[in-house]
């Protein structure tokens, strides 16, 4: 059986075929198995295929062992390096004689005798007498109580009192308004209207009088040329058709298995490893826990506590309520509802405050309004005059001579086909 390559079995693109090159640049001695372009490249005129600038791998052979010497090694001269001498410290020799520890502060400072500080505040003396202290101040002795008079209220009475008269619905605008009546407007149209002229309208213009019509030549139209097909055949052969050589090849075969339905008459084996190795173990039923029956104790229960045994009882009188037991009876006398506010209150008459209105700077006219304006007063009507025609009375007649319509452009123009 022939062994298949991975490129013939799988087409996912993730696996690599070991028989095909994968490097960026192929080996020069081995022909490329993917394309024949470099071998069968056709030459077009003076254009040649580009040459590779990569140097050819020439085997130079064994040239002997490599000498590891460099210019630095050959030019380097070793020198004897000695250690730098260190600085020697001088031996300490103490100076003879005693050190003078005196300072200028000690020389200039003079000692004075210090005495304790005597406070200038006299000592407090406590004088005690056997007499009783009189606690009545002079304010109580000299104070004289005066009779207080009841103070009159200065608050004005601001209660609203509606007027007794009937409400009058007139306003200040209605009272001050004077109706002038409707006056007809005066017409400013002039009384004398100019009369229209009886002469017929002359609509002849200078363009109509001076215009001379000239006959127009027929427009030159280029005759269409008939189509003449070429006798030479069409060269529809392209470089692609000329140079392309279709190589015969086989269609790629699909390695996908045939999706046919596999059927078998053998009965299905439904036994599994779990069923074969399963061992059934005996299981007992769960036991139910029965609650114990309550049995009352036969002995007497001791209800005494530490508080009851240690507690010492004291004779204490019960709490007496300060609330009277007998409620007072309601009085039959009338209730006095008079207060100082009601006795001293006096209703005042409040008048409505008049409207604060500025006096008018300009006095209104009392007479009837005159609708005459300055334009009406100074306007002077004038009679309308017809416009004067500036058309000449004797117009020149049309000339019978043809119009010289030739120009330099039309004479020097050379029509081109």
UniProtKB/TrEMBL annotation:
<protein>
    <submittedName>
        <fullName>Stabilizer of axonemal microtubules 2</fullName>
    </submittedName>
</protein>
<comment type="similarity">
    <text>Belongs to the FAM154 family.</text>
</comment>
<feature type="region of interest" description="Disordered">
    <location>
        <begin position="46"/>
        <end position="65"/>
    </location>
</feature>
<dbReference type="Pfam" id="PF05217">
    <property type="entry name" value="SAXO1-2"/>
</dbReference>
<dbReference type="GO" id="GO:0036064">
    <property type="term" value="C:ciliary basal body"/>
</dbReference>
<feature type="compositionally biased region" description="Polar residues">
    <location>
        <begin position="229"/>
        <end position="238"/>
    </location>
</feature>
<dbReference type="GO" id="GO:0036126">
    <property type="term" value="C:sperm flagellum"/>
</dbReference>
<dbReference type="GO" id="GO:0008017">
    <property type="term" value="F:microtubule binding"/>
</dbReference>
<dbReference type="GO" id="GO:0005814">
    <property type="term" value="C:centriole"/>
</dbReference>
<feature type="region of interest" description="Disordered">
    <location>
        <begin position="223"/>
        <end position="260"/>
    </location>
</feature>
<dbReference type="InterPro" id="IPR033336">
    <property type="entry name" value="SAXO1/2"/>
</dbReference>
<dbReference type="GO" id="GO:0005879">
    <property type="term" value="C:axonemal microtubule"/>
</dbReference>
């Amino acid at each position: 059986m022939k062994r298949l390559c991975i490129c013939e079995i799988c087409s996912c693109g993730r696996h690599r075929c070991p028989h095909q090159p994968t490097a960026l640049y192929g080996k020069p001695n081995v022909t490329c198995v993917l394309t024949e372009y470099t071998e069968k490249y056709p030459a077009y005129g003076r254009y040649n295929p580009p040459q590779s600038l990569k140097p050819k791998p020439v085997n130079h052979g064994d040239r002997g062992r490599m000498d590891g010497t460099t210019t630095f090694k050959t030019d380097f001269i070793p020198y004897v390096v000695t250690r730098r001498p260190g600085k020697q410290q001088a031996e300490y020799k103490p100076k003879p004689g005693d050190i003078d520890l005196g300072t200028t502060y000690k020389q200039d400072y003079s000692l004075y005798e210090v005495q304790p500080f005597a406070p200038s505040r006299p000592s407090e003396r406590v004088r005690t007498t056997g007499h009783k202290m009189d606690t009545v101040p002079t304010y109580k002795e000299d104070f004289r109580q005066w009779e207080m008079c009841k103070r009159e209220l200065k608050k004005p009475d601001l209660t609203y009192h509606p007027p007794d008269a009937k409400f009058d619905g007139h306003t200040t605008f209605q009272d001050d308004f004077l109706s002038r009546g409707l006056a007809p407007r005066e017409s400013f149209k002039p009384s004398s209207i100019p009369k229209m002229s009886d002469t017929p309208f002359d609509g002849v213009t200078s363009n109509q009088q001076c215009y001379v019509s000239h006959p127009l030549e027929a427009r030159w139209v280029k005759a269409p040329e008939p189509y003449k097909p070429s006798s030479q055949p069409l060269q529809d052969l392209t470089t692609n058709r000329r140079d392309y050589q279709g190589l015969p090849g086989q269609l790629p075969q699909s390695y996908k298995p045939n999706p046919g339905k596999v059927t078998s008459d053998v009965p299905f084996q439904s036994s599994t490893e779990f069923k074969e190795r399963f061992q059934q173990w005996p299981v007992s039923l769960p036991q139910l826990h029965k609650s114990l029956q309550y049995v009352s104790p036969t002995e007497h229960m001791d209800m005494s506590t530490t508080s009851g045994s240690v507690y010492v009882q004291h004779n204490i009188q019960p709490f007496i309520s300060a609330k009277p037991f007998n409620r007072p009876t309601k009085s039959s006398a009338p209730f006095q509802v008079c207060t100082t506010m009601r006795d001293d209150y006096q209703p005042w008459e409040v008048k409505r405050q008049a409207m604060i209105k500025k006096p008018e700077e300009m006095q209104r006219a009392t007479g009837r309004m005159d609708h005459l304006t300055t334009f009406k007063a100074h306007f002077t009507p004038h009679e309308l005059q017809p416009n004067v025609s500036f058309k000449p009375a004797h117009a020149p007649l049309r000339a019978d001579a043809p119009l010289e319509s030739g120009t330099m452009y039309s004479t020097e123009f050379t029509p081109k086909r």
